[in-house]
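4.2 Preliminary Data

To establish feasibility before requesting continued support, the project team ran the inverse folding procedure on a target of 215 residues. The structure was first converted into the token representation described in Section 3, and no sequence information of any kind was made available to the design step. The complete token record follows.
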């Protein structure tokens, strides 16, 4: 994405705006889910807002700009405020990727309508397409089942309690190392995260906006 900064500043600007929207929606959804499930922690920390400044993580944002995979500032919640901590934690974690996919779907419908030969808003599709791409990529990337990504907590929440404790301990110990390995650039210019997630990302994009070239 940074390659567009000098070659095409307009595309870069559109991509940055799309990035801010995708991260903000993702983290707000986490905060909203936690709040609805009985934990006021995100609200008290100012995370129950659509202000992008409340949700940006410097490293996660930089990774998204460089390799199109990244994350926002994690939303903190107190499991002791939840009625069913294991299940509710999984719901809170799932809320982020789900919100991105829902937003991508809504935008894809708008793009299809805008691409109609009779639509005066054909330019709108060019502006919304990067937002659809980033929302889908952010959702799929965060569903990788390792910590600190959402997929790790979702996996733990789906497992029986005895297995969940073991898996959670392993993910706490090695999750960060695995994450670094996933996003570390390979000699090919890609990374393992791209290799793992691109088939699913392309499948979803092919359904939402089949007329647009996938990644």
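Position-by-position output of the design step:
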């Amino acid at each position: 994405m940074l390659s567009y900064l000098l070659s095409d500043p307009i595309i870069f600007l559109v991509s940055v705006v799309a990035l801010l929207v995708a991260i903000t929606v993702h983290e707000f959804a986490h905060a909203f889910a936690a709040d609805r499930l009985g934990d006021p922690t995100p609200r008290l920390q100012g995370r129950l807002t659509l202000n992008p400044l409340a949700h940006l993580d410097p490293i996660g944002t930089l990774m998204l700009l460089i390799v199109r995979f990244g994350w926002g500032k994690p939303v903190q919640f107190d499991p002791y405020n939840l009625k069913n901590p294991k299940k509710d934690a999984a719901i809170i974690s799932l809320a982020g990727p789900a919100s991105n996919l829902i937003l991508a779907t809504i935008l894809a419908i708008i793009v299809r309508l805008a691409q109609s030969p009779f639509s005066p808003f054909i330019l709108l599709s060019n502006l919304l397409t990067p937002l659809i791409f980033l929302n889908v990529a952010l959702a799929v990337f965060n569903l990788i089942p390792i910590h600190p990504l959402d997929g790790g907590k979702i996996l733990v929440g789906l497992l029986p309690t005895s297995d969940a404790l073991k898996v959670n301990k392993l993910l706490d110990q090695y999750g960060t190392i695995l994450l670094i390995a996933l996003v570390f650039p390979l000699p090919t210019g890609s990374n393992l995260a791209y290799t793992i997630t691109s088939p699913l990302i392309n499948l979803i994009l092919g359904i939402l906006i089949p007329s647009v070239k996938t990644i």
